[in-house]
Amino acid sequence: MAASRRTILAALATAAIGSPALLPAGATPARAATGDLYGSNTELYATPGLLEGNQYARRYCRHGVLDDSQSTDAGIPQVAVLAPHGGGIETGTSELCLAIAGYHPATRAVTADGKGLHDYWMFEGLLGTGNGDLHVTSVNCDDPWAESVCGGARCAVALHGCTPEQAGEPAGTEAVLIGGLDVTLRELLRQEFVRVGIGVAQGTNDAIDGTHPRNICNRTLSGAGAQLELTTPLRHAMFGTNTRAERKNTTQPRFWEFVSATRAALALRAGA
Length: 272
Fold this sequence. Notes:
By secondary structure, the chain is of the alpha/beta class. Helix content is about 30%, strand content about 15%.
């Protein structure tokens, strides 16, 4: 029955958008390779029956910059934080996105660690079940705010979820697989995770290594970013109650260790 529903929705979406020209330059729908129902965010947004604020949501922030001085430069954003598969798709990544950007996921209080605030963007699945149907592979992400937030920063970090087996680790392993084209940021992240006792996956997986130039995390001013794939056990250990309603209210020490390590690495990268 699920296959039949997907076939019908895919046909409706294709008819709704009409042309693949709405995809980002150089990208093509990746359904066959990834198993995604939708070949782009544009296609998903055009699907009848999927309403923003009901079946899915987008949250984003670009901090205002004013440069009215003739002698100084206000500079450009250094860091963007992304959660392309937040909400119920890859659970825990929405909350991590907000916290790494510098905001408490429940109260929106600003983090007082002296490492500043970052621009962010997230796409969230809000379905009761079946949020995996809303997954759009990062190479095909064409959300205009995602491209704007990421494209206006020098580097980016994207939060994702995976299984231990996808990260090349035994079942039950708490670990993060570090990918992306920003080699410097990847090493800084590795060092910081090791420092706080978070396991770094040693395996490789071309499907989730974040090294495709069209991956949204790499569409920065420098053409590089980092992708963090957190295993399910690691994400589960970050929350007392792992539900969409309660994750933000029940963050555990593991959550803040991960956030602190990531923010430390980003601060070092921004100052490089």
